[in-house]
Design goal:
The protein is mainly alpha-helical. The protein is built from four helices and no strands.
């Protein structure tokens, strides 16, 4: 059961790493880290199959080590998600600031009379005085 839990976490880590690699590197090549995670996952799968089939015995030390690895992977995944969410919030705030700045510029442009408008207003005032 702990092996299956670790396997699921490895799959999630591989998926997260692959997604991260796709957004940061468009070469389509697998990263060294992704290959390493795949090798670990393969080893854990072989061990899990061996335990289920009765061909492998897992010592308490191995169980504790695997449990510790699973807990650490949870921490890493949670920290990565938290960091990503914070970064995304910062990007969203910057986008909002840019949008507000653009809107302010448009409003400011609309409220400032142009030279032609001012000249026209002066001309109309002069015409009224002639009447």
């Amino acid at each position: 059961s702990r092996l299956l839990s670790l396997e699921a976490k490895l799959k999630a880590a591989v998926g997260a790493q692959a997604q991260s690699d796709q957004t940061s590197d468009h070469s389509g090549e697998r990263s060294e880290q992704e290959d390493h995670l795949d090798r670990i996952m393969s080893s854990v799968q072989k061990l899990a199959v061996g335990v289920v089939n009765g061909t492998e015995n897992v010592s308490e030390a191995v169980v504790v080590t695997l449990s510790s690895m699973a807990e650490e992977m949870d921490r890493i995944l949670n920290a990565t998600k938290t960091s990503h969410d914070e970064d995304q919030s910062e990007v969203n705030r910057a986008e909002d600031d840019i949008t507000k700045c653009d809107e302010s510029a448009l409003i400011a442009d609309a409220s400032v009379p142009t030279t032609k408008e001012e000249e026209h207003a002066i001309c109309r005032s002069s015409e009224v005085q002639l009447l």
